[in-house]
Design goal:
elongated, alpha/beta, 342 residues, six-stranded mixed sheet
Length: 342
């Protein structure tokens, strides 16, 4: 069937193409009555908006993505999600540019990324990976002064005049972890929890969810230990806490330090401890396959990245209100399906 065009509607109604264009694109210059009549006729005739043509008619949209080199197992997947969605929108005059900082705590590099965004006159910003810190004030103020829509990806940050925050539901992640551990850890044994930093909002939420669900399921928590997202600290804590322990039957690793913990277990021949990790990446495959890791909490970073771009596109192009917070549901990944996630 041949596509219905504005020219067809114009000919059918005996009005100018300009009138049809204004009605279909909500432009000024015609009465509401005329607009309603044109819209009704367009719907009757089966007119569909040509989004590609529409996008080529407007100015390009440039999105700046501020990201970090830290924790590549997780944040590279967030970036991959952003890149995939930008690829889907390439024909719609939407492009992105990445501004990479060496670490989210490097104030000078972070401020330089903001300066680069200003110089490049981006239309919107995605900030991927940032933790709350006293030195963030200048960064937050600088981004707010840009006065462009900003989406926070992966974690939230106080003080931002953000359009939206897209992240995994960290509280539910903790609850899911505790429920899973309660099913695989022997009743008379306890669990240890490894998190990054108790002061980070996302880590607090995971811990709160875990402790609440653990209490509901009668799962005793031996202790909560901060690894600072450092594999060496995770290894040291594992050796100190787990070596020779007869009470601990499981460890929930709330961040991406699963490899360091598993390596410690192997090096010290520590057995009969159930490990629940976080994030699926190639380095954990062997530990899942040999049973060292019983399961993994999957945070779906690619989906998070795609949604960050989707929210900006809806806002910039459709001028639609978007949710202030988009929470992605976590899942448990087991040995039998890990290949699908890798």
């Amino acid at each position: 069937m041949q596509r219905v065009t504005m020219k067809d509607i114009s000919r059918e109604m005996d009005v100018s193409i300009n009138t049809v264009y204004k009605a279909l694109n909500d432009k000024k210059g015609i009465s509401q009555k005329t607009r309603d009549i044109v819209l009704k006729k367009a719907d009757t005739m089966g007119y569909r908006v040509n989004r590609v043509a529409q996008s080529l008619a407007r100015k390009p949209i440039h999105i700046g993505i501020i990201t970090t080199e830290e924790w590549p197992e997780y944040y590279n997947e967030l970036k991959k999600g952003v890149q995939r969605e930008l690829g889907q929108l390439a024909d719609y005059n939407v492009s992105g540019r990445f501004y990479t900082i060496s670490a989210p705590y490097t104030k000078e590099k972070t401020m330089q990324a903001v300066t680069d965004c200003i110089e490049d006159k981006v239309d919107a910003i995605i900030i991927c990976s940032y933790h709350q810190d006293a030195d963030n004030k200048g960064f937050v103020e600088a981004v707010n002064k840009l006065a462009v829509p900003t989406v926070l990806l992966g974690s939230d940050l106080m003080g931002f005049e953000r359009l939206c925050c897209v992240k995994v539901d960290t509280y539910v992640s903790g609850k899911l972890a505790a429920e899973f551990m309660s099913r695989i850890v022997q009743k008379e044994r306890t669990v240890a929890v490894f998190i990054g930093n108790k002061d980070f909002v996302e880590h607090k939420e995971k811990l709160a969810g875990f402790l609440k669900e653990a209490d509901s399921n009668g799962l005793e928590v031996e202790g909560v230990y901060e690894t600072q997202d450092d594999p060496q600290i995770a290894y040291y804590l594992s050796e100190k806490i787990l070596k020779g322990s007869e009470s601990i039957g499981g460890v929930y690793i709330a961040t991406g330090n699963s490899v360091a913990v598993c390596k410690c277990l192997k090096d010290n021949n520590i057995k009969n401890i159930q490990i629940l990790g976080t994030d699926v990446f190639e380095e954990v495959r062997s530990y899942v396959e040999d049973g060292t890791i019983s399961g993994i909490i999957f945070q779906d970073p690619i989906k998070q990245g795609r949604y960050a771009v989707k929210m900006l596109y809806r806002h910039l192009v459709g001028q639609l209100e978007v949710e202030k917070e988009v929470l992605i549901a976590p899942r448990v990944v087991l040995k039998s399906i890990i290949d699908y996630y890798l």
